[in-house]
Model the fold of this input.
Amino acid sequence: MPEAPDNPTALLALEHRERSGWRAWITSSSATALLALCFVLLIGVIFSGDGAFYKWNTHRDALRQASVYGMLACGMTFVIITAGIDLSVGSVLALVAVAFSILSIHWSWSPWLAVPACLALGAACGAASGGIIARLRIQPFIVTLAMMVFARGLAKSISGGRKVSTAMQLPDGSWTAADVPHVFRTIDSRLLGDNVSVVSLIFLACVLVSWIILSRLRWGRYLYAIGGNEEAARLSGVPVTMMKVLAYALAGVFSAVAGLCQAAQEQQGDPEAGIGYELTAIAIVVIGGTNLMGGRGGIGLTLLGTLTIGYLDKILSINAVPEASRLMLTGVIVIVAVLLQRRTD
Done:
């Protein structure tokens, strides 16, 4: 253990450095996101919904319900780190949910074919957005807004505007019920004595993959460099176009994973699913502390943001707060999070 310096001046300097380090941490994005989560949990302790907050089932369900949003937020993190935005993630989720239901229920495809096909569909949607943004230098807001409309329209087109469920109409006009595919039951199941949802584990796997890409691979450093200063990154030899396509393609893949889980949980593909989910995903990333201007942030912050939004929604739900009030409260929280970001900047 290092000894304290005898010199009073050196001792004062050491105390100043320690205070500065503590002050720097308490104003950091990590501390702000952690304090926000603790504050939400404290609200749950005080307003426990007649003790429901103290039951494990409440926490298990909160994690499961937040997992789909969290998967979308993982993809959104890549895009926002490059100083972009992706408004199409909710529509891509719906498109993949419809496609997965058609392939698995109506066409009886093996999950070994249906799952990769759906992931490729999500990646193609994201890569198309990223390619247009990077090649044609069009604002991400406009391109992803167009993709949001296109993917939603495609989902409605291939589903005939109806939910794709196990109820199927035969050529003679009668109806029959197909079995729920085994892959749907597997994704929607629980492990460890019904205490952990498979969907929550899939979300944690998405977090792990995102962390590896951002923290351990050169691609991650390139994404931060682009978000920090795109022109400087280009002059430094970073393949900006390819990395932007990669960021949006990853957002598409994670949207596809969320779409698979959404279809499995609902046991159907709903072309209207995921409406407004893109706003929740953006809120999660912002509340976590990833900078909307790009160049800073991380998947750990997104995990904290997911827990914060998930628990907040669950606490409001067990206290019977109307959905309209929840949406207004989420909007207020996003504004507060942005203001806190400006203060820490």
Remarks:
- The first strand starts at residue 167 and ends at 169.
- DSSP finds 14 helices and four strands in the chain.
- The radius of gyration is 22 Å.
